[in-house]
Design brief:
Elements: H1 2-24, H2 28-39, E1 43-44, H3 45-52, H4 56-68, E2 72-76, E3 84-88, H5 90-111, H6 116-144
Antiparallel strand pairs: 1-3, 2-3
Helix pairs in contact: 2-4, 2-5
């Protein structure tokens, strides 16, 4: 089961990344960084790493590249000058808005092979499995401490 889920995930990511690169000139990883910066304006690099599930060096390089492209703005933290807070620029906001519109079409196309009931069941199952895995990981971390 985990192999099949991983395979589906990789196929989906590859397809979506190719789509966003063709349509908007941006890869899926970069888009995720921008979307999270839009959802949590001022988020730190540490928080971003938690959200995108990438290593610090990879995340840092993505942030730098997006800032150079004028899509992301970095500001020194007010509470801690060692931290950078991340914000979308107006160009970043516009790009993210466009990708949400086109992404909805892509997702509907992907899920079109399922009935509405199957989509709801899949959604509930993903939430349930994710919650169980998070609880298991937190329990494992607590026993190590």
């Amino acid at each position: 089961m985990s192999f099949r889920l991983n395979r589906l995930c990789e196929m989906t990511k590859n397809s979506a990344s190719g789509f966003y690169e063709r349509e908007f000139g941006i890869g899926l990883r970069e888009l995720r960084v921008l979307r999270f910066a839009g959802l949590e304006p001022g988020l730190t690099l540490t928080r971003l790493m938690e959200l995108v599930l990438l290593e610090k060096t990879v995340t840092s390089k993505l942030v730098t590249a997006l800032a150079r492209r004028g899509l992301l703005r970095r500001e020194v933290g007010e509470a801690d000058a060692r931290q950078l807070n991340l914000y979308l620029t107006p160009a970043g906001e516009a790009l993210v808005a466009q990708t949400y519109q086109r992404g909805d079409v892509l997702e509907k196309m992907f899920l079109s092979v399922l009935t509405e009931a199957e989509v709801k069941t899949l959604d509930r199952c993903i939430d349930k499995l994710t919650s169980a895995l998070i609880a298991h990981q937190q329990g494992s971390e607590a026993s190590v401490d």
